[in-house]
Amino acid sequence: MTVYVQALETAVPRTKLIQSEARDVFAAQPGLTRLGSRLVSTCFDSAAIDTRYTAVDELTREHRAEDPQFFDAATGLLLNPSTKIRNEIFGREATKLFVEAARAAVDACPDLDLLDITHLVTVSCTGFFNPGPDYKIVRELGLNPAVQRYHLGFMGCYAAFPALRAAKHFCEADPDAVVLVVCAELCSLHVRTSNDPDTIMGSALFADGAAAAVITARPGARGSALLQLDHFETVLTPVGEDSMAWNIGDHGFEMILGNYVPHIIDDHIIGALQPLLARDPELEPLPYASIPHWAIHPGGRSILDKVQSRLGLTDAQLVPARETLRDYGNMSSATVLFVLKHILAQPPVTDTGQGRYSGQERDAGERICSMAFGPGLTVETGLFTKLRQQPGATTSVADHDRAEAPVG
Fold first, then answer.
1. Neighbouring residues of 157: CB distance < 8 A, sequence distance ≥ 6
2. Which of 35, 40, 234, 352 has a 20 to 30 Å separation from 365 between CA atoms?
3. Nearest-CA neighbor of 54 among 83, 89, 14?
């Protein structure tokens, strides 16, 4: 049974961060050592990020809070609120993003009745509350109260793949199923000033965003579908358990993002792709660059550089990942869905770098190989088929009111 993505929509908060201004704020914090100051400049400048978004309105220069919790605009000091305070903001602000992205995805399916949605899968690793985002979406959108709800929590940057895979299984088990998948992350809630290299790197990379997809195997779905979900695989690399981790501390969640992660991915990416491509005998023997599209989770610039070099991909094939990183930063689980949306907005491929598509091949769809990396080190991979171009592919901004901010 073939399963399709009918809609894929994204959303970001209203507060826009300028990377160079964020760098200057972090570099000016008291308590930084000489090495820490150099690391701030290096990490922020080499991240290949221009802008990011945050749900913390307080981070704007114009905002003057009577009792600032994250950033005192009057003194320029970054503050260090407790995990409780950060999580309370998550409960309030993440709900807005979950609902915003979910509503956009549902609205993109004009023939879909809200009561047709049978399953809801929500994803986040940046906060916890209950009744959770799955409950909030049901209430805010007016879904059937009996919809089956599932929440994938604290899995990290690769979690969109288990969510999509679960949706595929639901649809294969029930041909009438319609699954709404929503990922929302508020990574910026957990930034702090520090001399620790992992903390500095996290402050330079991470941002907030959400993405939602409507997935079904109903008859007639292919004619209006954007994507076909073909195969998924999971691989654990033999090393890297201590190189990428996500723990709960007294002052927010603490990221471990060792500088050896790109080298681990470089060493093991071929082996991680092998079981996925083995699922498609036509693709397995071909050069990697012959697959037209690569939706790679942009965990950082150096990760994209290693993947491109190891797989021999063209610059054009890395554009969706690099432009997502440049414009939005790393939004954890939602990020790879932003990359997929970028690919869906591209015109049809005429040249893969290894030869041209025939008209018949274009009619059959363009293949997409996708991957994301997370704690473990876990590599999640997916093989999709792009069926048509997404019309008017844009990312909505929560509250439709952007404010530029100096810190991230």
1. 297, 299, 330, 332, 333, 335, 336, 372, 373, 374
2. 234
3. 14
pLDDT digits (tens, 9 = 90+) for 135-155: 999 999 999 999 999 999 999
| pLDDT range class, residue 357, cuts 50, 70, 90 | very low
283-311 residue pLDDT tens? 999 999 999 999 999 999 999 999 999 99
**Phi (first) and psi of residue 78, to 5 degrees:** -80, 135
What homologous superfamily does CATH list for 3-222+400-405? Thiolase/Chalcone synthase (3.40.47.10)
The CATH code of the domain at 225-389 is: 3.40.47.10
* 225-389 has the same fold as 3-222+400-405: yes
Residues with catalytic function: 157
Asked if residue 344 lies in contact with residue 227, where contact means CB atoms within 8 angstroms, the answer is yes
Residue 278, token pair as written in the block: 């083995």
Return the domain boundaries, the chain.
3-222+400-405, 225-389
Omega of the bond prior to 283 within 30 degrees of 0, cis?
Answer: no
